[in-house]
Protein backbone atom coordinates (compact mmCIF):
# COMPACT_ATOMS: atom_id res chain seq x y z
CA UNK A 1 0.00 0.00 0.00
CA UNK A 2 2.75 2.46 0.92
CA UNK A 3 4.70 1.61 -2.24
CA UNK A 4 1.63 2.49 -4.30
CA UNK A 5 1.67 6.11 -3.13
CA UNK A 6 2.68 8.47 -5.96
CA UNK A 7 6.01 10.35 -5.60
CA UNK A 8 4.18 13.67 -5.42
CA UNK A 9 0.79 14.15 -3.76
CA UNK A 10 -1.02 17.31 -4.94
CA UNK A 11 -1.68 19.51 -1.93
CA UNK A 12 -3.00 22.75 -3.34
CA UNK A 13 -4.62 21.69 -6.61
CA UNK A 14 -7.26 19.14 -7.47
CA UNK A 15 -5.58 15.92 -8.69
CA UNK A 16 -6.07 15.13 -12.38
CA UNK A 17 -7.24 11.59 -11.76
CA UNK A 18 -8.75 9.28 -9.16
CA UNK A 19 -7.02 7.47 -6.32
CA UNK A 20 -7.70 4.24 -4.49
CA UNK A 21 -9.87 5.07 -1.44
CA UNK A 22 -7.62 3.20 1.01
CA UNK A 23 -4.57 5.01 -0.33
CA UNK A 24 -6.30 8.42 -0.06
CA UNK A 25 -7.31 7.57 3.49
CA UNK A 26 -3.78 6.65 4.48
CA UNK A 27 -2.28 9.80 2.96
CA UNK A 28 -4.67 12.00 4.92
CA UNK A 29 -4.32 9.93 8.08
CA UNK A 30 -0.51 10.05 7.92
CA UNK A 31 -0.56 13.84 7.77
CA UNK A 32 -3.02 14.07 10.65
CA UNK A 33 -0.61 12.05 12.82
CA UNK A 34 1.44 15.25 13.01
CA UNK A 35 -1.35 16.97 14.96
CA UNK A 36 -1.12 17.17 18.73
CA UNK A 37 -2.71 14.56 20.98
CA UNK A 38 -6.20 15.88 21.77
CA UNK A 39 -6.27 14.24 25.21
CA UNK A 40 -3.16 16.23 26.19
CA UNK A 41 -4.58 19.54 24.95
CA UNK A 42 -5.19 21.71 28.01
CA UNK A 43 -5.82 24.78 25.86
CA UNK A 44 -9.20 23.77 24.51
CA UNK A 45 -12.50 23.67 26.35
CA UNK A 46 -13.87 21.38 23.63
CA UNK A 47 -14.67 17.72 24.35
CA UNK A 48 -11.95 15.36 23.15
CA UNK A 49 -13.37 12.00 24.24
CA UNK A 50 -16.74 10.26 24.08
CA UNK A 51 -17.82 6.70 24.70
CA UNK A 52 -17.65 4.20 21.79
CA UNK A 53 -21.46 4.00 21.76
CA UNK A 54 -21.62 7.75 21.11
CA UNK A 55 -19.08 7.38 18.31
CA UNK A 56 -21.25 4.74 16.66
CA UNK A 57 -24.40 6.78 17.12
CA UNK A 58 -22.81 9.81 15.50
CA UNK A 59 -21.64 7.69 12.57
CA UNK A 60 -25.24 6.52 12.14
CA UNK A 61 -26.36 10.16 11.85
CA UNK A 62 -23.60 11.75 9.77
CA UNK A 63 -25.90 11.90 6.74
CA UNK A 64 -28.78 13.63 8.53
CA UNK A 65 -29.40 17.34 7.98
CA UNK A 66 -30.68 18.97 11.16
CA UNK A 67 -32.71 21.55 9.24
CA UNK A 68 -34.73 18.90 7.40
CA UNK A 69 -37.20 18.30 10.19
CA UNK A 70 -39.87 16.84 7.91
CA UNK A 71 -37.54 14.14 6.57
CA UNK A 72 -35.91 13.45 9.95
CA UNK A 73 -38.69 14.06 12.48
CA UNK A 74 -37.13 11.94 15.22
CA UNK A 75 -33.87 13.91 15.08
CA UNK A 76 -35.98 17.08 15.34
CA UNK A 77 -37.76 15.58 18.34
CA UNK A 78 -34.42 14.89 20.05
CA UNK A 79 -33.47 18.54 19.59
CA UNK A 80 -36.74 19.68 21.18
CA UNK A 81 -36.23 17.33 24.11
CA UNK A 82 -32.72 18.65 24.71
CA UNK A 83 -34.06 22.23 24.75
CA UNK A 84 -36.69 21.26 27.32
CA UNK A 85 -34.10 19.46 29.44
CA UNK A 86 -31.86 22.53 29.44
CA UNK A 87 -34.79 24.86 30.16
CA UNK A 88 -35.65 22.75 33.19
CA UNK A 89 -32.00 22.50 34.28
CA UNK A 90 -31.75 26.31 34.13
CA UNK A 91 -35.07 26.81 35.96
CA UNK A 92 -37.15 28.39 33.21
CA UNK A 93 -40.64 29.25 34.59
CA UNK A 94 -42.32 26.99 32.00
CA UNK A 95 -39.66 24.60 30.64
CA UNK A 96 -42.02 23.01 28.16
CA UNK A 97 -42.79 26.38 26.59
CA UNK A 98 -39.35 28.01 26.63
CA UNK A 99 -38.08 28.58 23.08
CA UNK A 100 -34.60 27.47 22.12
CA UNK A 101 -32.60 25.60 19.54
CA UNK A 102 -29.35 23.85 18.80
CA UNK A 103 -26.58 25.74 17.04
CA UNK A 104 -23.15 24.90 15.68
CA UNK A 105 -21.62 26.22 18.90
CA UNK A 106 -21.82 29.00 21.45
CA UNK A 107 -20.72 31.63 18.95
CA UNK A 108 -23.87 31.13 16.90
CA UNK A 109 -25.94 30.86 20.07
CA UNK A 110 -24.56 34.20 21.28
CA UNK A 111 -25.34 35.81 17.92
CA UNK A 112 -28.97 34.66 18.20
CA UNK A 113 -29.29 35.86 21.79
CA UNK A 114 -27.75 39.20 20.87
CA UNK A 115 -30.09 39.60 17.90
CA UNK A 116 -33.09 38.93 20.13
CA UNK A 117 -31.87 41.58 22.61
CA UNK A 118 -31.39 44.11 19.83
CA UNK A 119 -34.77 43.43 18.20
CA UNK A 120 -36.66 43.64 21.52
CA UNK A 121 -34.97 46.97 22.27
CA UNK A 122 -35.74 48.31 18.79
CA UNK A 123 -39.39 47.32 19.03
CA UNK A 124 -39.79 48.95 22.45
CA UNK A 125 -38.09 52.15 21.31
CA UNK A 126 -40.16 52.46 18.14
CA UNK A 127 -43.37 51.76 20.04
CA UNK A 128 -42.47 54.68 22.32
CA UNK A 129 -41.68 56.93 19.36
CA UNK A 130 -37.97 57.06 20.21
CA UNK A 131 -34.94 56.64 17.94
CA UNK A 132 -33.54 53.11 17.67
CA UNK A 133 -30.35 53.65 15.72
CA UNK A 134 -27.59 53.60 18.37
CA UNK A 135 -27.80 50.31 20.30
CA UNK A 136 -25.04 49.29 22.68
CA UNK A 137 -24.22 46.14 24.61
CA UNK A 138 -22.39 46.18 27.96
CA UNK A 139 -19.92 43.41 28.78
CA UNK A 140 -16.51 42.81 30.32
CA UNK A 141 -13.37 42.84 28.20
CA UNK A 142 -12.94 39.16 29.13
CA UNK A 143 -15.82 38.08 26.87
CA UNK A 144 -15.13 35.59 24.11
CA UNK A 145 -14.41 37.22 20.75
CA UNK A 146 -17.80 36.12 19.36
CA UNK A 147 -19.38 39.06 21.23
CA UNK A 148 -17.12 41.56 19.50
CA UNK A 149 -18.00 39.86 16.24
CA UNK A 150 -21.69 40.25 17.06
CA UNK A 151 -21.21 43.96 17.68
CA UNK A 152 -19.29 44.41 14.44
CA UNK A 153 -21.65 42.31 12.30
CA UNK A 154 -24.90 43.83 13.56
CA UNK A 155 -23.81 47.41 14.16
CA UNK A 156 -24.01 47.44 17.94
CA UNK A 157 -21.61 49.46 20.07
CA UNK A 158 -19.60 47.07 22.24
CA UNK A 159 -19.16 48.75 25.61
CA UNK A 160 -16.30 46.65 26.91
CA UNK A 161 -15.57 47.20 30.58
CA UNK A 162 -11.78 46.89 30.97
CA UNK A 163 -10.09 44.87 33.68
CA UNK A 164 -8.99 46.90 36.66
CA UNK A 165 -6.49 45.95 39.34
CA UNK A 166 -7.10 42.42 40.54
CA UNK A 167 -10.67 42.32 39.14
CA UNK A 168 -10.59 40.39 35.89
CA UNK A 169 -14.27 40.37 34.95
CA UNK A 170 -17.45 42.43 34.96
CA UNK A 171 -18.70 43.84 38.28
CA UNK A 172 -22.19 45.21 39.07
CA UNK A 173 -21.19 48.83 39.61
CA UNK A 174 -19.03 49.05 36.50
CA UNK A 175 -21.74 47.42 34.38
CA UNK A 176 -24.39 49.89 35.53
CA UNK A 177 -22.05 52.85 34.93
CA UNK A 178 -22.07 52.07 31.20
CA UNK A 179 -25.80 51.49 30.78
CA UNK A 180 -28.11 54.07 29.25
CA UNK A 181 -31.37 54.19 27.29
CA UNK A 182 -29.63 52.66 24.27
CA UNK A 183 -28.35 49.59 26.10
CA UNK A 184 -29.94 46.47 24.65
CA UNK A 185 -28.59 44.22 27.39
CA UNK A 186 -25.73 43.21 29.66
CA UNK A 187 -23.72 40.05 29.01
CA UNK A 188 -22.62 38.17 32.11
CA UNK A 189 -20.10 35.37 31.63
CA UNK A 190 -20.43 32.22 33.70
CA UNK A 191 -16.89 31.00 33.33
CA UNK A 192 -14.31 33.38 31.87
CA UNK A 193 -12.03 31.92 29.22
CA UNK A 194 -9.13 33.86 30.74
CA UNK A 195 -9.17 32.31 34.21
CA UNK A 196 -12.27 30.13 34.64
CA UNK A 197 -14.00 32.47 37.10
CA UNK A 198 -17.74 33.12 37.29
CA UNK A 199 -19.05 36.66 36.97
CA UNK A 200 -21.48 37.65 39.78
CA UNK A 201 -24.68 37.29 37.74
CA UNK A 202 -27.07 37.70 40.68
CA UNK A 203 -25.31 40.86 41.88
CA UNK A 204 -25.34 42.30 38.36
CA UNK A 205 -29.09 41.66 38.17
CA UNK A 206 -29.63 43.29 41.56
CA UNK A 207 -27.71 46.38 40.43
CA UNK A 208 -29.82 46.55 37.26
CA UNK A 209 -32.98 46.23 39.35
CA UNK A 210 -31.85 49.28 41.30
CA UNK A 211 -31.12 51.11 38.04
CA UNK A 212 -34.67 50.38 36.86
CA UNK A 213 -36.16 51.64 40.11
CA UNK A 214 -34.03 54.79 39.98
CA UNK A 215 -33.97 55.71 36.28
CA UNK A 216 -36.65 53.53 34.69
CA UNK A 217 -34.15 51.63 32.52
CA UNK A 218 -35.23 47.99 32.33
CA UNK A 219 -32.19 46.22 30.86
CA UNK A 220 -32.17 42.43 30.37
CA UNK A 221 -29.22 40.13 31.02
CA UNK A 222 -27.91 37.38 28.79
CA UNK A 223 -25.78 34.74 30.50
CA UNK A 224 -22.96 33.41 28.36
CA UNK A 225 -22.68 30.02 29.96
CA UNK A 226 -20.58 28.46 27.19
CA UNK A 227 -18.82 26.42 29.86
CA UNK A 228 -20.34 27.30 33.23
CA UNK A 229 -23.96 26.58 32.35
CA UNK A 230 -23.04 22.89 32.25
CA UNK A 231 -20.93 23.07 35.42
CA UNK A 232 -22.84 25.25 37.90
CA UNK A 233 -26.14 23.28 37.89
CA UNK A 234 -24.27 20.16 39.02
CA UNK A 235 -21.42 21.51 41.14
CA UNK A 236 -22.97 24.73 42.49
CA UNK A 237 -26.72 24.00 42.65
CA UNK A 238 -27.44 26.83 45.12
CA UNK A 239 -25.77 29.48 42.99
CA UNK A 240 -28.39 31.81 41.49
CA UNK A 241 -27.31 32.70 37.97
CA UNK A 242 -30.02 31.35 35.65
CA UNK A 243 -33.75 31.89 35.03
CA UNK A 244 -34.35 31.96 38.77
CA UNK A 245 -33.28 35.59 38.33
CA UNK A 246 -36.17 37.36 36.56
CA UNK A 247 -33.79 39.69 34.74
CA UNK A 248 -32.05 36.83 32.91
CA UNK A 249 -33.64 36.74 29.46
CA UNK A 250 -31.55 34.04 27.79
CA UNK A 251 -28.75 31.55 28.36
CA UNK A 252 -26.38 29.81 25.97
CA UNK A 253 -24.01 26.91 26.41
CA UNK A 254 -21.67 24.80 24.33
CA UNK A 255 -22.81 21.21 24.13
CA UNK A 256 -19.34 20.47 22.82
CA UNK A 257 -17.61 21.83 25.92
CA UNK A 258 -18.82 20.67 29.32
CA UNK A 259 -21.95 19.34 27.63
CA UNK A 260 -19.54 16.46 26.82
CA UNK A 261 -20.19 16.18 23.06
CA UNK A 262 -17.68 16.32 20.22
CA UNK A 263 -17.30 19.72 18.45
CA UNK A 264 -20.25 21.08 16.52
CA UNK A 265 -23.15 21.78 18.88
CA UNK A 266 -24.28 24.67 21.06
CA UNK A 267 -27.60 25.64 22.64
CA UNK A 268 -29.53 28.82 23.35
CA UNK A 269 -32.68 28.99 25.45
CA UNK A 270 -34.93 31.98 26.23
CA UNK A 271 -36.87 32.44 29.45
CA UNK A 272 -40.19 32.54 27.59
CA UNK A 273 -41.66 33.33 24.20
CA UNK A 274 -41.57 37.07 24.88
CA UNK A 275 -37.78 36.87 24.82
CA UNK A 276 -37.62 35.73 21.19
CA UNK A 277 -39.32 38.23 18.85
CA UNK A 278 -41.59 36.48 16.39
CA UNK A 279 -40.12 38.32 13.42
CA UNK A 280 -36.80 36.52 13.97
CA UNK A 281 -38.50 33.17 13.35
CA UNK A 282 -38.65 32.22 9.67
CA UNK A 283 -40.81 29.53 8.14
CA UNK A 284 -39.90 27.45 5.13
CA UNK A 285 -41.90 24.80 3.29
CA UNK A 286 -39.63 23.77 0.43
CA UNK A 287 -38.22 20.81 2.35
CA UNK A 288 -41.73 19.50 2.88
CA UNK A 289 -43.97 20.68 5.70
CA UNK A 290 -44.03 24.08 7.39
CA UNK A 291 -40.90 24.43 9.51
CA UNK A 292 -39.94 27.35 11.74
CA UNK A 293 -36.23 28.14 11.92
CA UNK A 294 -34.32 30.81 13.80
CA UNK A 295 -30.73 29.58 13.62
CA UNK A 296 -28.14 31.48 11.58
CA UNK A 297 -27.02 28.37 9.76
CA UNK A 298 -29.41 26.45 7.56
CA UNK A 299 -28.00 22.99 6.87
CA UNK A 300 -26.41 21.56 10.00
CA UNK A 301 -25.35 18.06 11.05
CA UNK A 302 -27.79 16.06 13.12
CA UNK A 303 -25.13 13.79 14.59
CA UNK A 304 -24.10 16.15 17.39
CA UNK A 305 -27.72 16.65 18.47
CA UNK A 306 -28.20 12.89 18.66
CA UNK A 307 -24.97 12.64 20.65
CA UNK A 308 -26.16 15.36 23.05
CA UNK A 309 -29.40 13.53 23.69
CA UNK A 310 -27.48 10.28 24.16
CA UNK A 311 -25.23 11.95 26.74
CA UNK A 312 -28.18 13.46 28.62
CA UNK A 313 -29.88 10.06 28.60
CA UNK A 314 -26.73 8.15 29.48
CA UNK A 315 -25.52 10.30 32.39
CA UNK A 316 -28.58 11.99 33.81
CA UNK A 317 -28.20 14.56 36.56
CA UNK A 318 -26.18 12.30 38.87
CA UNK A 319 -23.81 11.28 36.08
CA UNK A 320 -23.11 14.87 35.08
CA UNK A 321 -22.58 15.77 38.73
CA UNK A 322 -20.08 12.93 39.08
CA UNK A 323 -18.16 13.77 35.90
CA UNK A 324 -18.05 17.53 36.47
CA UNK A 325 -17.23 17.11 40.15
CA UNK A 326 -14.33 14.84 39.23
CA UNK A 327 -13.04 17.41 36.73
CA UNK A 328 -13.13 20.10 39.40
CA UNK A 329 -11.38 17.80 41.86
CA UNK A 330 -8.59 17.12 39.34
CA UNK A 331 -8.30 20.84 38.54
CA UNK A 332 -7.99 21.85 42.17
CA UNK A 333 -5.45 19.11 42.85
CA UNK A 334 -3.38 20.07 39.81
CA UNK A 335 -3.52 23.75 40.79
CA UNK A 336 -2.19 22.89 44.25
CA UNK A 337 0.61 20.79 42.73
CA UNK A 338 1.65 23.60 40.39
CA UNK A 339 1.53 26.21 43.15
CA UNK A 340 3.80 23.99 45.26
CA UNK A 341 6.49 23.98 42.55
CA UNK A 342 7.47 27.50 43.63
CA UNK A 343 7.68 29.91 40.69
CA UNK A 344 3.96 30.01 39.88
CA UNK A 345 1.34 32.26 41.44
CA UNK A 346 -2.25 31.12 41.00
CA UNK A 347 -4.79 33.61 39.67
CA UNK A 348 -7.65 31.13 40.11
CA UNK A 349 -7.78 27.71 41.72
CA UNK A 350 -10.15 25.61 39.59
CA UNK A 351 -12.94 25.86 42.14
CA UNK A 352 -15.49 27.39 39.74
CA UNK A 353 -14.92 26.12 36.24
CA UNK A 354 -12.45 23.21 36.43
CA UNK A 355 -10.02 25.67 34.89
CA UNK A 356 -7.28 27.73 36.49
CA UNK A 357 -4.70 30.28 35.42
CA UNK A 358 -1.35 31.16 36.89
CA UNK A 359 1.47 33.60 36.27
CA UNK A 360 5.14 33.58 37.16
CA UNK A 361 6.33 35.20 40.35
CA UNK A 362 8.58 38.30 39.93
CA UNK A 363 11.67 36.40 41.06
CA UNK A 364 11.42 34.03 38.06
CA UNK A 365 13.37 36.31 35.73
CA UNK A 366 15.20 33.86 33.50
CA UNK A 367 12.18 32.51 31.61
CA UNK A 368 8.65 33.50 30.61
CA UNK A 369 5.31 31.69 30.59
CA UNK A 370 5.84 31.39 26.84
CA UNK A 371 9.07 29.49 27.48
CA UNK A 372 7.20 27.21 29.88
CA UNK A 373 4.48 26.53 27.29
CA UNK A 374 7.12 25.73 24.64
CA UNK A 375 8.89 23.26 26.92
CA UNK A 376 5.63 21.51 27.78
CA UNK A 377 4.80 21.29 24.07
CA UNK A 378 8.06 19.40 23.54
CA UNK A 379 6.68 16.79 25.94
CA UNK A 380 3.31 16.63 24.17
CA UNK A 381 1.31 18.93 26.46
CA UNK A 382 -0.55 21.87 24.92
CA UNK A 383 -0.87 24.58 27.59
CA UNK A 384 -1.68 28.09 26.35
CA UNK A 385 0.39 31.11 27.33
CA UNK A 386 -1.18 34.52 26.67
CA UNK A 387 -1.55 38.08 27.90
CA UNK A 388 -4.65 39.54 29.52
CA UNK A 389 -6.59 42.25 27.64
CA UNK A 390 -6.39 46.03 27.76
CA UNK A 391 -5.55 47.59 31.14
CA UNK A 392 -3.88 44.37 32.35
CA UNK A 393 -1.75 43.48 29.37
CA UNK A 394 1.11 43.25 31.85
CA UNK A 395 -0.27 39.91 33.06
CA UNK A 396 1.21 36.95 31.20
CA UNK A 397 -0.51 33.73 32.16
CA UNK A 398 -0.73 30.00 31.62
CA UNK A 399 -4.16 28.39 31.67
CA UNK A 400 -5.04 24.76 32.39
CA UNK A 401 -8.43 23.42 31.24
CA UNK A 402 -9.45 20.14 32.84
CA UNK A 403 -12.05 18.18 30.87
CA UNK A 404 -13.56 14.73 31.00
CA UNK A 405 -10.69 12.35 30.29
CA UNK A 406 -8.10 14.30 32.31
CA UNK A 407 -7.45 12.00 35.25
CA UNK A 408 -5.50 12.38 38.48
CA UNK A 409 -2.82 10.15 36.97
CA UNK A 410 -2.47 12.32 33.86
CA UNK A 411 -2.39 15.40 36.08
CA UNK A 412 0.49 13.84 38.04
CA UNK A 413 2.35 13.18 34.79
CA UNK A 414 1.79 16.79 33.71
CA UNK A 415 3.02 18.15 37.04
CA UNK A 416 6.10 15.94 36.76
CA UNK A 417 6.87 17.13 33.24
CA UNK A 418 6.39 20.73 34.35
CA UNK A 419 8.83 20.20 37.21
CA UNK A 420 11.41 18.73 34.81
CA UNK A 421 10.89 21.65 32.43
CA UNK A 422 11.61 24.08 35.26
CA UNK A 423 14.93 22.38 35.96
CA UNK A 424 15.93 23.11 32.35
CA UNK A 425 14.46 26.61 32.28
CA UNK A 426 16.35 27.70 35.40
CA UNK A 427 19.56 27.40 33.37
CA UNK A 428 18.42 30.31 31.17
CA UNK A 429 19.74 33.77 31.93
CA UNK A 430 16.90 35.60 30.20
CA UNK A 431 13.55 34.65 28.61
CA UNK A 432 13.84 33.36 25.06
CA UNK A 433 10.19 33.89 24.11
CA UNK A 434 7.82 36.81 24.60
CA UNK A 435 4.17 37.58 23.93
CA UNK A 436 4.89 37.86 20.20
CA UNK A 437 5.74 34.15 20.12
CA UNK A 438 2.41 33.02 21.58
CA UNK A 439 0.37 30.75 19.34
CA UNK A 440 -2.71 31.24 21.51
CA UNK A 441 -4.93 34.31 21.36
CA UNK A 442 -8.27 34.99 23.02
CA UNK A 443 -9.10 37.47 20.28
CA UNK A 444 -9.32 40.36 22.75
CA UNK A 445 -9.00 43.75 21.16
CA UNK A 446 -9.46 47.33 22.21
CA UNK A 447 -13.06 48.48 22.63
CA UNK A 448 -14.84 49.69 19.52
CA UNK A 449 -15.03 53.48 19.35
CA UNK A 450 -17.80 55.60 17.85
UniProtKB/TrEMBL annotation:
It is an enzyme of class 4 (lyase). Its EC number is 4.1.1.15. Keywords: Decarboxylase, Lyase, Pyridoxal phosphate. Belongs to the group II decarboxylase family. This is Glutamate decarboxylase. It comes from Streptomyces hazeniae. SUPFAM superfamilies: PLP-dependent transferases. Its cofactor is pyridoxal 5'-phosphate. GO terms for molecular function: glutamate decarboxylase activity. It catalyses: L-glutamate + H(+) = 4-aminobutanoate + CO2. PANTHER family: GLUTAMATE DECARBOXYLASE.
